[in-house]
Specification:
The chain is mainly beta and about 70 residues long. It contains 1 helix and 4 strands.
């Protein structure tokens, strides 16, 4: 997560096909009109926390990487 290796059983658990992390993963959320205007004018950027998870696995003898976003619907 964000370039930091996570360990199964310590940082997350696998429940069926789901990965359940033991801490909350942050998502940036929607930007409001004032933030968009500030970005358009070059006054400010968007520097909020936005975490993703890179899952590395092997399928058919090939190493594959999937980038996942947290699902808050659980």
């Amino acid at each position: 997560m964000n370039g930091i290796r996570q360990e199964p059983g310590q940082d997350f658990d696998r429940l069926g096909d789901d990965l359940v992390f033991r801490r909350v993963l942050a998502q940036e959320g929607r930007l409001g009109p004032l933030r968009w205007l500030a970005m358009l004018l070059g006054i400010a950027g968007s520097y909020r926390k936005h975490e993703t998870v890179d899952v590395i696995y092997e399928a058919d003898g090939r190493r594959t990487v999937a980038t996942l976003s947290p699902n808050s619907g659980v």
